[in-house]
Amino acid sequence: MLEGRGARDWHQTRRFMLSEPAAFDELLRRLTEAVTRYLRAQIAAGCDAVQLFDSWVGALGPHEYERHVLPHVRRLFAALGSEVPRIYFGTGNPALYPLLARSGADVIGVDWRVDLGEAWDRIGDLAVQGNLDPAYLLAPVDAMQQAARRVLDAARGRSGHIFNLGHGVLPSSPVDSVRRLVDFVHEASAR
Q1: Quick one: angle between helices 21-44 and 70-80, nearest 10?
Q2: pLDDT tens-digit map of 103-156
Q3: Alpha carbon distance 6, 135 (integer Å)
Q4: Three-class SS of residue 5?
């Protein structure tokens, strides 16, 4: 929307946020209203959970996130109520985890760039979703299973862990690898 294409550094978005804070706030207010309406429609249609996938916030420092983004995210989750679990995934910046935990979400998604146990310690008493590196779906099966075991071990048997990839399935991931991962996690978790 602001970058004109996909971005890694979010320079245009951050420039707008810092140089035009009132306009940026209004943009996020409108986006929050639209996303809230969309997620409420998903809930009304019978979904089991909703997730806000906030992939750009990893470019922000804690102060900028708390000042410019967190109030809108809190408003969104408050407006959704607690009819279904609310998941919040902000990638690429473990320093934000304590702030993400204050968002009003029930579950915090964690990407693969941080140890799951350490992330959970920062998040506190909420459920956590994550955090296998999706590239392991491209690796040999034994390497994928070893990595999945590390994620399960990092959860330390805590209640509330939702095993997931630390981002999303890569388009080139073999379907058979996804099946094998799911089977492995089910078997390993049943013990």
Answers
A1: 20
A2: 999 999 999 999 999 999 999 999 999 899 999 999 999 999 999 999 999 998
A3: 20
A4: coil
pLDDT (tens digit, 9 = 90+) per residue, 71-85?
999 999 999 999 999
- Under a CB-based contact definition with an 8 Å cutoff, are residues 128 and 110 in contact? yes
Structure tokens at 127: 């459920």
Cβ–Cβ under 8 Å, residues 54 and 86: no
**Residue count (the chain):** 191
CA 138 to chain centroid, in Å, comes to: 22
Tokens describing residue 69: 């983004």
Residue corresponding to tokens 């956590």: 128
CA distances from 191 to 5, 91, 116, 131, 147 (A): 46, 31, 20, 20, 17
- Domains (range + CATH), the chain: 1-109 (3.20.20), 130-191 (no CATH)
Distance between CA 168 and CA 103 in Å, rounded? 22
Q: What digits encode the pLDDT tens for the residues 148-189? A: 999 999 998 888 999 999 888 999 999 999 999 999 999 998
